[in-house]
Design a protein that fits this description.
Structural class: mainly alpha
Shape: elongated
Radius of gyration: 16 Å
Order of helices and strands: HHHEE
Oligomer: single chain
Number of helices: 3
Strand content: 5-15%
Number of strands: 2
Amino acid sequence: MISPTWVETELMRRNVQQVVEREGRGRTMEEAMSDIAAQNPQKRIIQPDEIAALAAFLCGEGARGHHHGEHTDHGRRTLVSRRSGLLT
């Protein structure tokens, strides 16, 4: 399982825009996106290509011995559980 925090997709942007409009506080979309990024440990929003790269790795030969674990993106650094023996 890959479980990132927020991933910047069109769906995310639409949802954030809807929240901004419902709030009625005069906050801009950019301010809302900045607030979301500030809440993440890496202080940014994950990009789809980062998730795709991790998925490709997990499907490739490099992960053939991996059978269980949690994959957490911490700013372009992939951490795989120690149980799998893979930690990059």
